[in-house]
Design a protein that fits this description.
By secondary structure, the chain is mostly helical. It folds into 2 domains: 193 residues, Fumarase C, Chain B, domain 1; 249 residues, Fumarase/aspartase (Central domain) (Fumarase C, Chain A, domain 2). The protein has 18 helices and 9 strands. The strands form 4 sheets. A 3-stranded antiparallel sheet has the order 4-6-7. A hairpin with a 2-residue loop joins strand 6 and strand 7. The radius of gyration is 26 Å and the shape is elongated.
Length: 505
């Protein structure tokens, strides 16, 4: 399994209130170190002291003096409490499926450390130190993807917690090693558990939230890439940019649409229109061009809403029970239920599917000689040669793949623990499906890029807009200029890699 990249990013501060998706990505993917602020440590210490006071007063405390879930009515004796905390981690380490990647686990570890710094958990300082130390030493606990229902990522966090105690396995670079040995080699002391730490450490959706933070970063990059490709298609088809006129797009009523139209105007600034088809076909462009700001604007809105939700969740004390140190109380609650996150991710996936269909429709338009005035399917010699005919199939197959991945997840609740937990968000599944959706979407965008470049080459034209020339220059370096019949999958893969690595200009 690949490790996180070597550090090429300044340390990221975890203060319990200002962690961003970009910060999570820097820690997870760029290997950035983390620095937990003294104020964040102090908040956790105060919560820890409040727990000790509650227990000293003989008060009942969920997950300390009682069992958890369906076992909440059963008492845990004082002499059993330290062992019980460890037993909780061991008994909940029951995940299955494919191993999670190092970046995903690092994203979750950073999220959990920041949440603990927000106060409300009150874990042992030794456990928090082990968490931060492991992140900075590049040690990543081994855990698998299946087990969480979006009401706390219990199985994953249990395995992380155990690794910080020296049990289980962790990644050091590309090597999967014994956790105790890895901590010792890095000069780290194993964490220590107090009477509530087993529950306190697991009481979070840190894996779902961390992976959603990476989703936000990836989706932002993909969105700018596909708008750049769409602008290139506008040039290739000589579509009328009148549909981007500022008077058509109200930032007050349709902010996403207005933002996309503004970006398209920026990309097409300086466009010199090329004469195209005569007659009534020239009155209005088809929907793949005319409705592009409306459809892609919905993605912009959904992504903005998801980014806001994730930013809140990264800095939220979603503990059950929540330790309110100032009042000396432990408040039972349903905050580990990740409904807000799951619903926001579902909304983004739905919007992505709509855009995928529109992108595939643009590929069809680029191959339509009635719209472009170019030979059918962009073949040099139609008939003996098929040109890019099959790219239409590939684009629509990938778009269909996207649609197959967007069935709403948040509505598929399940009931467990003898009905005590009779509702679930399934947020981790929604987030994983969203990452899979982006992978398929990149293929649709890549096919459009290959097709648009081929159309311009066949027409003997270069883009005239400043924004499209940048993409054109990079694409032409990577895409074979040979327009004869040949396998096109190398072009699609090269274009997909370009889309994945694209940075806004």
């Amino acid at each position: 399994m690949p490790a996180a990249a070597p550090r090429a990013h300044p340390p990221v501060t975890l203060d319990g209130s200002r962690l961003t998706p970009a910060g999570v990505a820097a820690i997870a993917r760029d290997g950035a170190a983390v620095r937990l602020t003294p104020a964040a440590r102090a908040r956790n210490d105060r919560a820890r002291a409040a727990i000790a006071s509650l227990l000293a007063r003989g008060e009942e405390l969920y997950g300390v003096t009682t069992g958890v879930g369906a076992l909440r009515s059963l008492r845990v004796g004082e002499h059993d409490r330290d062992a019980y905390s460890l037993n909780l981690l061991r008994s909940h380490a029951g995940g299955a499926g494919s191993p999670l990647t190092v970046p995903v686990v690092r994203a979750a570890m950073a999220t959990r450390a920041n949440q603990i710094g927000a106060g409300g958990a009150g874990v042992a300082s030794e456990l928090l130190d082990a968490l931060v130390g492991a992140l900075n030493a590049g040690l990543t606990p081994f855990t698998r993807e299946l087990g969480s229902l979006g009401t706390g990522d219990l199985t994953n966090l249990a395995e992380v917690g155990l690794a910080l105690l020296g049990e289980g396995r962790l990644w050091r670079g590309d090597d999967l090693i014994d956790a105790a040995a890895g901590l010792a080699d890095a000069g780290l002391e194993p964490g220590r558990l107090g009477p509530r730490d087993g529950l306190a450490f697991m009481s979070s959706n840190a894996f779902s939230i961390g992976q959603a933070a990476l989703l936000v970063v990836d989706a932002r990059r993909v969105l700018d890439a596909w708008l750049s490709v769409a602008a290139l298609s506008f040039e290739a088809v000589a579509a009328d940019p009148i549909v981007l006129d500022v008077r058509l797009h109200s930032p007050l009523h349709r902010p996403g649409q207005a933002s996309v139209a503004a970006r398209m105007r920026e990309l097409l600034d300086g466009l010199q229109r090329t004469a195209r088809r005569p007659g009534p076909l020239g009155v209005q462009d088809p929907y793949p061009f005319r409705a592009q700001p409306q459809v892609d604007g919905a993605v912009h809105d959904a992504l903005r809403a998801l980014e806001e939700t994730v930013s809140h969740e990264l800095n939220f004390s979603g503990e059950n029970a929540l330790i309110v140190a100032s009042d000396g109380v432990a408040l039972p609650n349903g905050n580990p239920h990740a409904a807000p996150l799951a619903n926001a991710v579902d909304a983004l996936r739905t919007a992505l599917a709509s855009s995928a269909a529109l992108i595939a429709a643009r590929v069809s338009a680029l191959l339509d000689s009635g719209l472009t005035g170019l030979p059918p399917f962009l073949a040099r010699d139609p008939g003996p040669e098929s040109g890019a005919l099959v790219l239409e199939y590939t684009a629509h197959a990938a778009a269909a793949e996207v649609r197959s991945l967007v069935t709403p997840v948040a509505a598929q609740s399940v009931s467990v623990a003898r009905g005590v937990e009779s509702h679930s968000s399934l947020a981790p599944i929604a987030v994983r499906r969203a990452h899979e959706t982006l992978r398929a979407l990149r293929v649709v965008i890549a096919v459009e890029l290959v097709t648009a470049v081929r159309a311009l080459r066949l027409a003997g034209r270069r883009p005239t807009a400043a924004g499209t020339r940048r993409l054109w220059d990079v694409a032409c370096e990577r895409l074979d200029e040979d327009l004869s019949d040949r396998p096109l999958h190398p072009d699609v893969e090269a274009a997909r890699a370009l889309v994945e690595s694209w940075t806004p200009g």
